[in-house]
Amino acid sequence: MSFRDKVDKRLSRKQKAYEIESLMKNKRSEDYQVIEEVFDKSTLMTIYDFMNKGIIDEIHGVVNAGKEARVYWGKDTEGNELAIKIYLTSSAEFKKGMLPYIEGDPRFSHVRRDTRSLIYTWAQKEYKNLQRAKDAKVNVPEPLAIQKNVLIMNFIGKNGERAPLLKETVLENPEQVFKLILTYLKRLYTKAGLVHADLSEYNIMMWKKKPVIFDVAQSVLIKHPMAERFLRRDIENLHRYFNRKVSDILSVDEIYVRVTGGRK
Ligand SMILES: Nc1ncnc2c1ncn2[C@@H]1O[C@H](COP(=O)(O)OP(=O)(O)O)[C@@H](O)[C@H]1O
Ligand SMILES: [Mg+2]
Questions:
Q1: What residue ranges line ligand 1, CB within 6 angstroms?
Q2: What pLDDT, in 10s, does the model give residues 198-216?
Q3: In CATH, what number is assigned to the domain containing residue 170?
Q4: 1, 3, 88, 181: which has the highest count of C-beta atoms within 10 A?
Q5: pLDDT, tens digit (0-9, with 9 covering 90-100), for 31-84
Q6: Rounded to the nearest whole angstrom, what is the distance from the C-alpha of residue 150 to the centroid of ligand 2?
Q7: Is residue 132 domain-shared with residue 253, that is, in the same domain?
Q8: Are residues 193 and 173 in the same domain?
Q9: What is the pLDDT of residue 263?
Q10: Which among 158, 186, 203 is the end of a domain?
Q11: CA dihedral of 17, 147, 191, 94, whole degrees rounded to 10
């Protein structure tokens, strides 16, 4: 690399650091190393695009830092709170894990198989699944926009403080909450035609006394060859969590029949 190139590179790094810093309202929310990893050039362009369209007005701190995605708190131009989920295009082992949930889904059978395309598909899939779930009247975060690896939803919580997970909540009325989750699962299966496929107390929030189901990128159509197995696993997780919290709880088999309406 020539001296000139080195200088250019340093400059563009500085430029980028500056851009991201001015983008983030709370500069100290993450160290620069992490920010740089999440906001690669393409992601930055996507964010700018959302800003130009008025979909995002401000980005504040990080709500959650997962291995595959980070969720940021933001606001639109009217001050409505947003959850901005950014899938990490640098996540390498991601690809292997995603494939079984993409293959077997006719909605995505024609997509390219390179890592970046798969991650875009993954984000797209989460958006579409949220949309289907919402149309079926399942309580989910409302999907607002999707572009490349960036998904925007309404924020579940208030003033940047996310709603507690089911896992973090002591329920006053576990019976009612359990019943409501089953109702949502039934709607998800029979109306949206989806199986969540990663359901647990970690992917349900409690907000305004109601469960909110989320994290649906891996959710599959009921026609998917593994759908039955995934649904059974979801129900087992739920049963394990609510067992001893709900008296006379239905068995896994009974729940399965209730959720699917006996359909296969
Ligand atoms: N729409 C949202 N509103 C508020 N917080 C959210 C929202 N979506 C996700 N979160 C928070 O971010 C965390 C990670 O989100 P999730 O979709 O589960 O990503 P991952 O794929 O990393 O598990 C959640 O546990 C939740 O606390
Ligand atoms: Mg999750």
A1: 63-64, 66, 68-69, 71, 83, 141, 153, 155-157, 162, 165, 203, 214-215
A2: 999 999 999 999 999 999 9
A3: 1.10.510.10
A4: 181
A5: 666 777 788 889 989 998 999 899 999 998 889 988 899 999 999 999 999 999
A6: 16
A7: no
A8: yes
A9: 65
A10: 158
A11: -60
Instruction: Give the span between the Cα atoms of 16 and 33, in whole angstroms.
Output: 12
Q: What residues are labeled active site? A: 198, 215
User: Looking at the CA of 158, which ligand is closest?
Assistant: 1
Protein residues with C-beta less than 5 angstroms from the ion ligand 2: 203, 215
The pTM (predicted TM-score) of the whole model is: 0.90
Question: Which residue segment(s) compose the domain that 221 sits in?
Answer: 163-260
Residues in the chain, how many?
A: 264
The domain that holds 102 is classified in CATH as 3.30.200.20
166: left (phi over 0), alpha (psi -120 to 50) or beta: alpha
Tokens of 182: 């089953």
Instruction: Indicate which residue's Cα is closest to atom 9 of ligand 1.
Output: 71
The per-residue pLDDT of the chain, averaged, comes to 90
- 168 and 153 share one domain: no
66 DSSP assignment: -
Question: What is the Å distance from ligand 1's center to 113 Cα?
Answer: 26
Residues ≥6 apart with Cβ < 8 Å to 40: 89, 90
